[in-house]
Amino acid sequence: MSWAVLGRLHAVPALDRPDLLADPVEHALTLLDPADAARVGVAEIDPALADTADFCTAYSSPLEGSANCVVVAGRRGGQVRYAACVVLATTRADVNGVVRKRLDVRKASFAPVDEAVELTRMEYGGITPIGLPTGWPLLVAPEVAAAAAVVIGSGIRAGKLAVPGALVASLPAAEVVEALALRTMEP
Predict the structure, then answer these.
(1) Residue limits of the YbaK/aminoacyl-tRNA synthetase-associated domain (predicted)?
(2) How far is CA 172 from CA 13, 113, 117, 133, 162, in A?
């Protein structure tokens, strides 16, 4: 298990520390094959340092080893359609190109914070692809899927997960989407 992506933090198997997981995250982990669940590590962090750049600086975790999970919403025929996107922290999701087309909506945007928090039952700054609402597409950048491990949220701001990229790509409703990530940022 490669949890070194967490920098100087000490990780343990995620299910050993349910206090560091949002309820839907813990539940989703219990539904995984036990061997896969054991590959997910969790580390406790200062909740004030949950934002990616702050986290990476404080804990010596490489920015290119972190992935962000963003909730996107779009409307079609009066119905709101949601998706979650997982991209490396050094990139951005192509919300109004690839994601908009995948949701089949005229315009897509980041879901309002209160809405994303309520629907996912996760804390803002800790939303993660593990344990998302049933029926939401989970769009994963190929760079995330190919990573030996990425740091993602644990559903709460006080924890971070280290997860093999292939495991993220195998989550329910996950789909690896070419060109999902764009505009590489400076690390």
Answers:
(1) 47-163
(2) 21, 23, 20, 10, 18
pLDDT in tens, 161-180: 999 999 999 999 999 999 99
Alpha-carbon separation of residue 119 from 52, 64, 95, 144, 162 (angstroms): 22, 28, 19, 24, 24
In this prediction, residue 187 carries a pLDDT of 46
Q: Please state the rounded mean pLDDT for residues 106-130.
A: 96
Q: Which domains does the chain have, with CATH numbers?
A: 4-174 (3.90.960.10)
Residue with the two structure tokens 């962000």: 68
Q: Is 180 helix (H, G, I), strand (E, B) or coil?
A: coil
Give me the percent of the chain exceeding a pLDDT of 90.
Answer: 94
In DSSP notation, 95-151 reads: IIIIIHHHHT-S-EEEPPHHHHHHHHTS-TTT--STTPPTT--EEE-HHHHHSS-EE
Q: Are 90 and 68 in contact (CB under 8 A)?
A: no
